[in-house]
Design brief:
Length: 331
């Protein structure tokens, strides 16, 4: 607990475009959805500027590239091996990499968006969402694969003058923490406690649905130092998109739940951590943005009253580190 009368809100965004779901849906649909994201991202950045809400943009490393190409043997990113290979996926991980330049494949590269994020009034953090959106927590992902992937992400960022210190696991599948620690990551978003041990089964979905409808506060969470200087900053609320059965949940219920989560964090003096993907704004964007505006306005009011810090994952981890050594800091 950082202190007993002020809560902390963290907002993290998983930015992945077409890297996030090529194993889940037809490529043409996926690319079309990815290309819808940019206007929503611009609108989101403007809204965050208006309410001075910083976020951690956990970005797939490949999106930072201006271009890439296949080598003589036809492989993409042969300099960052071993690549992920999972028995449930019939092809190699980079099969769909267009290996062209950013202007020709805007669903697979987004250095333009990275610059938008860096150019806002409010200071966001660019974090990592891996290089190729591989699954670190999959039992078939070896430490060598995780290390090669994270090194590629660090390099893509470094080439843009960005140092990555926060990490969000693709699909929230936590794994290979010693690799993160070794390569300089200070914070990661651990799993929502409600998901732990439950998976995404029908019972959990039903419970979740009920909690959403009733505006019941999310499970309380607090940061934990998993390895020296590496903080788990668990998520505890996913801002749900207007798709499938979830679209029946009124936005007012979701906003009420966020406010309850923030109030709970203030009361406990710990964390409230909201997250989503920019593509979650694609369906019914006006409804989604009206919800976000109410959330941001509430959070900003709580901050103005001195009750809430609104921090990036990186800034929160740094404060947590400093709070461990208060005497050193006073000197
Ligand atoms: Zn590539």
């Amino acid at each position: 607990m950082l202190n007993g009368h002020r809560g902390t809100m963290v907002l993290s965004l998983d930015f992945e475009l077409s890297w996030g779901r090529f194993d889940k849906m037809p490529l043409n649909e996926l690319e079309a959805e990815s290309l819808e994201e940019r206007p929503h991202i611009r609108r989101l950045l403007a809204l965050m500027d208006r309410y001075e809400i910083p976020a951690t943009w956990a970005t797939v490393g490949h999106l930072m590239l201006d271009r890439c190409e296949r080598d003589a043997s036809g492989h993409a990113h042969g300099d960052s091996t071993p690549h992920a290979a999972y028995s449930w996926l019939s092809h190699e991980w980079f099969k769909h990499d267009p290996c062209t330049d950013a202007s020709r494949a805007r669903a697979w590269y987004a250095p333009d968006v990275v610059e938008w994020i860096r150019g806002t009034k409010v200071r966001h953090e660019i974090g990592s969402h891996s290089f190729g959106h591989i699954y670190y927590g999959d039992p078939e992902c070896t430490p060598e694969v995780a290390e090669a992937d994270l090194k590629a992400a660090l390099k893509a960022a470094k080439d843009k003058g960005i140092t990555l210190t926060s990490f969000v696991f693709p699909r929230n599948l936590v794994g290979h923490l010693p690799v993160l620690h070794e390569l300089g990551i200070k914070a990661y978003r651990g799993q929502d406690p409600m998901m732990k041990g439950w998976g995404f089964g029908p019972i959990l979905r039903a419970v979740h649905y009920w909690h959403q409808l009733r505006g019941i506060p999310p499970y309380p969470v607090q940061a934990e130092e998993t390895l020296p200087g590496l903080w788990n900053i668990p998520g505890n609320q996913f801002f749900m998109p207007k798709v499938g059965i979830r679209r029946l949940i009124p936005m007012a219920c979701q906003v009420r739940r966020v406010k309850a989560g923030i109030n709970q964090a203030v009361k406990r003096g710990d964390l409230y951590h909201l997250w989503f993907h920019p593509f979650n704004l694609n369906a019914q964007p006006d409804v989604m943005f009206s919800g976000l505006e109410r959330i941001f306005a509430f959070a900003a009011r709580m901050r103005d009253k001195g009750l809430l810090n609104i921090l990036t994952m990186g800034d929160y981890a740094q404060r947590l580190d400093e709070s461990k050594h208060p005497l050193v800091l006073q000197r």
